[in-house]
Amino acid sequence: MRRTIVDIAKEANVSVTTVSLVLNDKAKSMPESTITRIKDIAKKYNYKPNHMAVGLVTKKSKTIGLIVPDITNNFFSELAKSVESYCNLHGYTLILSNSNNDSKKERLSVSLLMDRGIDGLLIAFSQTESMEKQSDFVKLLNKLDIPLVALDSYLEGLTCPGVSVHHSLGGYIATKHLIDLGHKKIACITGPKSFYTAERRLKGYFRALEEHEIPSQDNLVKEGNYSYQSGYDATVELLKNDITAIFVSNDLMAYGAYRAIQEQGKTIPDDISIVGFDDLIFSEILTVPLTTIRQQISELGNKAWDLLYQGLSDGTPTKEYLQLEPKLIIRKSTKNILKEGNDA
Amino acid sequence: MRRTIVDIAKEANVSVTTVSLVLNDKAKSMPESTITRIKDIAKKYNYKPNHMAVGLVTKKSKTIGLIVPDITNNFFSELAKSVESYCNLHGYTLILSNSNNDSKKERLSVSLLMDRGIDGLLIAFSQTESMEKQSDFVKLLNKLDIPLVALDSYLEGLTCPGVSVHHSLGGYIATKHLIDLGHKKIACITGPKSFYTAERRLKGYFRALEEHEIPSQDNLVKEGNYSYQSGYDATVELLKNDITAIFVSNDLMAYGAYRAIQEQGKTIPDDISIVGFDDLIFSEILTVPLTTIRQQISELGNKAWDLLYQGLSDGTPTKEYLQLEPKLIIRKSTKNILKEGNDA
DNA sequence: CTGAAAGCGCTTACAG
DNA sequence: CTGAAAGCGCTTACAG
Questions:
Q1: What distance in Å separates the CA atoms of residue B286 and residue B228, rounded to the nearest whole number?
Q2: Which of A207, B124, B215, B321 gives the lowest tally of CB atoms within 10 Å of its CB?
Q3: How far is CA B238 from CA A249, B58, B111, in A?
Q4: Is there a contact between B51 and A115 if contact means CB atoms under 8 Å apart?
Q5: How far is CA B25 from CA B20, B89, B175, in A?
Q6: Do the domain assignments include residue B139?
Q7: Residue B343 scores a pLDDT above 50
Q8: Which residues pair with B150 in a beta bridge?
Q9: Residue B54 falls within a domain, yes or no?
Q10: Contact flag A96-B97 (C-beta cutoff 8 Å)
């Protein structure tokens, strides 16, 4: 049977006030004997305060919500894992919610979680909706009376802090790597342009080209939807042009590109160099291991937590949007076409 | 500002009792006018009952816990997604906890969740510990006063219901498929034998062999740890024998097998047929798509929820352990070696 | 320094 | 049929 603070007070012959004070380490000058007596009894019964009772009076649930588009996506499960560990470390519990890339479900999740009385909220937005429709959602979010942090995504007009990998820098680094290897005819397979991540990565691609005075060509940029099949399809199209390299906006599409290239009897990296983005575990074990951009997800979770915790502790209300440095992982899918040597 | 039941009672000129009754649809013969008046006011203020207050008096948190070894593993994230959707459907909230394959952390999670006042618990056990050490954990679990269901794993002596894929049947089907294709020299790469899943799958392999009067050979069974590298290593060893097929206990190890086979200049399925287990998304997009055993994870989540819900609703206390039928997905990595045709 | 008491926002016997 | 009141298990001003 679960004991209450009253049970302990009785057994220790003190008031519940005293028990509460002692157990919360708020007892100042109290006889050491009383303190140990109370603590001993609490330990004996393995006393744990009733979470709901505490929450009712303190108005804190010690719970935080995390909304992701799809926990099945490895990026988000890594993120959830990281965030969960930080939550636990600080005595918070994580409630996970999948929006299934559906903005309706996303809004529903927000209100469900709010009704639950979460103390803070982390959201990785699904980005499948037009800006206009989002504007009232943004308004709602800005009015929330709990700290909020945006993960790996952003909505126009949001006033909360956020954190993501520096996607445009990633696109830049990937493209620059190709340029440094002597490539000039560099295509790009981007994700849906309405996605924050895709748009930023594409921007990096353009910037790298521009900086090196390589004119960009519309027909060398194809839009996929981050799926394997779309990577395949885009590559089939792209291969009709005279290209030597492709920057692919995520690894999954890069796998599709591999297939298309192989089917055309061409080889990687001899005929076509490929750089991906994400560094899925499979990228390393491909027959031709994929050169790609790695996102440091656990660091992302760390920063996200820091940002949230700042809000939770009512520190200075940071509104900054952090961008973490992505990392180029050079493997075997890119080749230097200047010298007669092999890869990078 | 968040309204309370008192605010609504005042505005509607009724008692809080009445408001509570109406809002919980427990009002029997009450003037329709009063009901609508109260409901309208509630809607106007977007009233939501304070979750902690309700919980304090009803002793229900409408929260359930899910402990998994590693959410980063696609199997568990699929499972979590499925479970979460059923929870939400029934008005429950899911708290996710990672045990990181660490039984200490697993026990900690259980007590943390219990302290939180969850109404039910789903656990996919990490199976990295000896049976003896587990026995007190089992005792603790059996004493829990909330419904519990075991997921895809089991501990000796547990008295709760559970559900998993019928692993031994999966191993059987996989091996029988190979036998049906004319193979007789069939190796097996198993997972850690201390794992429930690995042990069961291996058992299925043996049963299929036995039923077809193919003697099993110790040197044709290698134990891996479910990792890519271990699949590779095991295959290198196995290839020293005269074999024509391998049943690999999970897809990731099968990928390692692919690499080893390829490095030896052999081809799949012409020289070696391979059957995996899991059906990861990558299995389909391999150069030689992998024949494998698919676990129907969303159904698993469904059944798990049903089992838990039965306990939650205090129905008949089922103690059954359900085993779901696995599905053979035939692709290109297995070949019929009897007739001169091609694959299955 | 300690304890009695109010109060957090609900639900639910129990009277009227 | 309705409402006053007790009570869920805590925390925290406020008196003594």
A1: 15
A2: B215
A3: 39, 60, 44
A4: yes
A5: 8, 19, 56
A6: yes
A7: no
A8: B123, B162
A9: no
A10: no
Length, in residues, of chain B: 344
Share of chain B above pLDDT 90, in %: 82
Q: With b meaning 16 or more CB within 10 Å and e meaning fewer, what string describes A293-305?
A: bbbbbeebbbbbb
Place B130 in a pLDDT band, splitting at 50, 70 and 90. Answer: low
Please indicate, yes or no, if residue B68 is contained in any of the structural domains.
Answer: yes
Nearest protein residue, CA measured to C1' of D5: B17
Number of C-alpha atoms within 13 angstroms, CB side, residue B334?
A: 28
Whether residues A221 and A333 fall in one domain: yes
- Alpha helical stretches, state H, B155-269: 167-180, 196-211, 228-238, 251-263
Three-state secondary-structure class, residue A9:
helix
Would strands B63-68 and A321-324 be described as parallel, antiparallel, or unpaired?
A: unpaired
Three-state DSSP at B27 gives: coil
Q: Are residues A192 and A113 in the same domain?
A: no
Tokens matching residue B59: 């002793």
Helices A103-116, A131-143: axis angle to 10 degrees equals 10
Determine, yes or no, domain membership for A56: no
DSSP for residue B343: B
Chains A and B: how many Cβ contacts under 8 Å? 99
Specify whether A156 is located in the same domain as A98.
yes
Per-residue pLDDT reduced to its tens digit, B37-52: 999 999 999 999 999 9
Question: Does the distance separating the beta carbons of B259 and A115 come in below 8 Å?
Answer: no
Q: Which nucleotides of chain C does any protein CB come within 7 A of?
A: 1-5, 7-13
Q: Which domain holds residue B14?
A: 5-49
A320 exposure class (CB count in 10 Å sphere: 0-12, 13-18, 19+): exposed
Q: Vertex A48, ends A47 and A52: CA angle to 5°?
A: 140
Statement: residue A163 has pLDDT above 90? yes
Distance in angstroms (rounded) separating the CA atoms of residues A34 and A41: 11
Domains contained in chain A, number: 3
Please check whether residues A201 and A305 belong to one and the same domain: no
B93 and B16 housed in the same domain: no
Residues of B with CB under 8 A from a CB of A: 48, 50-53, 55-56, 61, 70-72, 74, 77-78, 80-81, 84-85, 88, 93-98, 112, 115-117, 228, 255-256, 259, 262, 282, 285, 287
Which residue, counting CA atoms, is nearest to the C1' of nucleotide D6?
B57
Look up the CATH number of the domain holding residue B143: 3.40.50.2300
Q: Which of A51, A97, A259 is opposite residue B116, by nearest beta carbon?
A: A51
Q: What is the pLDDT of residue A344?
A: 45
Query: Same domain for A16 and A153?
Result: no
A342 pLDDT higher than 60: no
Same domain, A79 and A25: no
Q: Mark out the alpha helices in chain A (DSSP H runs).
A: 5-12, 16-23, 32-44, 51-58, 74-89, 103-116, 131-143, 167-180, 196-211, 228-238, 251-263, 281-285, 297-312
* Residues B118-130: b if buried by 16+ CB within 10 A, e if exposed: bbbbbbbbbbebe
